[in-house]
Write a structure and sequence with these properties.
The complex is a heterotrimer of chains A (256), B (46) and C (286). Chain A is an all-alpha fold and 256 residues long. Helix content of chain A is 66%, strand content 1%. Chain A has one domain: Cytochrome Bc1 Complex, Chain C (Up-down Bundle), CATH 1.20.810.10. Chain A is built from 11 helices and 1 strand. The longest helix of chain A has 33 residues. The two termini of chain A are 42 Å apart. Chain B is mostly helical. The chains are: A mainly alpha (256), B mainly alpha (46), C mainly alpha (286). At the A-C interface, helix 3, strand 1, helix 5, helix 6 and helix 7 of A face helix 1, helix 2, strand 1, helix 3 and helix 5 of C.
Chain lengths: 256, 46, 286
């Protein structure tokens, strides 16, 4: 059986199609193992060789990598959910109900999306804690820590904007709590310190910008939908790219 | 000073807050100390 | 097949290099030979694959165990009691009990983000780069852990100890019964100063809407004094600490540190001394 598989593999590896895609044979010798890192766009995030210390699970706890994995998982499940969702206050709630009753695997994908989101938030925090405890933010990696903090913020905002989309009581009121805080922003909120003095009122302050109105309604749902499904994922992906790029440029910190 | 003892209920919340904070803080520090030792042991073992 | 190759390769590498101690020394000197590194394929790639499969399995289990909830249709007419933000924001929501929204919801989170961004720039300690250590950076680790702990305990309180009307519920309290309304009367610090010291309520100066009384100036003094004393004491007693940081880093560090410590301080002042605001102005209260 194994022999047969090996024969099949050897034949497949020699076909023109396989060569056109992968450029080299299966990475079972050192040359191909190096080549695979150069020729594969995903694997190319890695160096060819890595310090032995970087493989220690007790050092990294796989936290950063898993955070990225949750992001990928969120993108995949999110696309699936978008097929069945219309950001309309009259339809959104029904759409989500349908996911649980009518659509095959709808509930599973929604649950997976939710649990990945919770996990991503938690793992960003844990990853930050790990990076702090190993001092991996110290020169020359200061800027990558900053990028990490930006990613922490976008992760939180992403999660929060997603909270509104089911349009149930939980969603509406959790976001109402948040928009009340925005109204209380100093200088730019109508209920914040020096806000009224600067001419802020409920129809021109930061909460109005966020919600597209004075209450959490249709415009708020649309704004949160666009932010959640398009704007913020793009921003996050961009900073993730910078984050990974800097790890490659600055090198892995320890232990090394 | 009276306020402190008139409201034991609020005091208990305050105590809970202090103990909780220091417990979690201790957890992180213990984690750092454990791994510091663990990696040192790793050094000697090899 | 490939796994076997890698296992023997990394084994060979570790026996060649003389183990971790030697490895750390060489790394510190910047002399990393090819024997200290291993190929990413298969060593790291497989590790990543395994951890991803593992994570997926756990997520799927969680999905079956607790599927995503869906409550009643959103309605502006009925306010749920209590209204809770998502768990990762409950720390901030809990702060709303003790601070006004502009502080709890906007300024303090901004400080947290700025403080986090500043960390690599205000920590001049060259030790502890790339390895776990507590002994070589006690202040940094303790300070950071304290901040994290504060964040997490507030979340724990928000998730498990707050119920109807955002009242405090111990695990043994009935979550369906309203807690008796607190008999506690919260007073502003300046009112306490006024009555205990017998100060006049007449303002000394009136700046627009702001009627400045003697007690009010005293509270300003206490508020700014907290920072002033906090900035001065380490400067006087731990001059080495100051010298290592330099003027700018020292001030940034101390401002962030004192602001962080100010949060639990205000919580206690409010919780135990029943003081509502330590500082009152027409525009903002702290």
């Amino acid at each position: 059986m194994l022999e047969l598989l090996k024969r099949i593999r050897n034949t497949v590896n020699k076909t023109q199609v396989f060569k056109s895609i992968f450029r080299h044979g299966y990475p079972d010798n050192d040359a191909n193992r190096a080549l695979v890192m150069f020729s594969n766009v995903v694997l190319h995030l890695h160096p060819v060789r890595v310090h032995r210390g970087a493989l220690k699970i007790k050092f990294t706890w796989c936290l950063g990598g898993l955070t990225f994995f949750f992001f990928i998982l969120l993108a995949i499940t999110g696309v699936f959910l978008m097929f069945y969702y219309v950001p309309d206050t009259n339809r959104a709630y029904q759409n989500i109900q349908d996911l649980g009753t009518v659509i095959f695997f709808g509930d599973l994908f929604r649950s997976l999306h939710r649990w990945s989101a919770h996990s991503m938030v938690l793992f960003v925090w844990l990853h930050m804690t790990r990076v702090f405890l190993t001092g991996s933010y110290k020169p020359p990696r200061e800027f990558n820590w900053v990028v990490g903090v930006i990613l922490l913020s976008t992760t939180l905002v992403l999660s929060w904007t997603g909270y509104l989309l089911p349009w149930d009581q939980l969603a509406l009121w959790a976001v109402t709590v948040g928009s009340k805080m925005a109204e209380a922003s100093p200088l730019i909120g109508n209920a914040g310190p020096f806000g009224p003095e600067l001419g802020m009122n409920p129809t021109n302050d930061i909460a109005f910008v966020l919600l597209g109105g004075t209450v959490v309604g249709q415009s708020a749902l649309l704004r949160f939908y666009v932010l959640h499904c398009l704007a913020l994922p793009l921003v996050t992906a961009l900073f993730i790219a910078v984050h990974f790029w800097r790890i490659r440029k600055d090198g892995f910190s320890g232990p090394l | 000073m009276d306020a402190l003892w008139v409201y034991p209920y609020r005091l208990s919340i305050g105590i809970f807050l202090v103990i909780g904070t220091f417990l979690i803080m201790g957890l992180f520090i213990a984690f750092a100390i454990w791994l510091e030792k663990d990696f040192k042991k790793d050094k000697q073992a090899k | 097949m490939s796994d076997k190759g890698s296992a023997s390769e990394s084994k060979a590498a570790s026996s060649q290099s003389g183990g971790f101690a030697a490895l750390i020394k060489r790394t510190a000197k910047g002399k990393i030979g090819p024997e200290d590194t291993v190929l990413v394929w298969p060593n790291l790639v497989y590790l990543e694959l395994i951890s991803m499969v593992f994570a997926t399995a756990i997520l799927l289990f969680l999905c079956l165990y607790s599927p995503a909830p869906l409550e009643e249709l959103a309605s502006a007419d009925t306010t749920p009691n209590p209204t809770k933000a998502p768990w990762y924001f409950l720390g901030l929501q809990e702060l709303l009990v003790f601070f006004d929204p502009w502080l709890a919801g906007v300024v303090l989170p901004t400080f947290i983000i700025i403080g986090l961004i500043l960390i690599p720039y205000i920590d001049p300690n060259p030790l502890g780069k790339g390895y776990y250590t507590f002994s070589e950076r006690k202040f940094a680790v303790t300070g950071f852990s304290f901040g994290l702990a504060l964040w997490y305990i507030l979340i724990v309180i928000g998730v498990w100890f707050r119920g109807l009307d955002w009242s405090w519920y111990w695990p043994w309290d009935d979550p369906h019964m309203h807690q008796p309304a607190g008999a506690v009367k919260l007073v502003d610090l300046e009112v306490i100063l006024q009555s205990t010291l017998g100060l006049s309520e007449r303002p000394i100066v009136t700046l627009g809407r702001y009627a400045v009384t003697v007690a009010n100036i005293l509270t300003w003094g206490m508020f700014l004094g907290y920072y002033a004393v906090g900035f001065t004491i380490p400067f006087l007693l731990f001059r080495k600490f100051y010298n290592r940081l330099g003027f700018v880093r020292y001030n940034l560090t101390m401002f962030m540190f004192l602001s962080m410590m100010g949060v639990p301080l205000k919580i206690f002042v409010r919780l135990l001394a029943n003081i509502k605001y330590v500082l009152v102005t027409p525009w903002f209260n702290i």
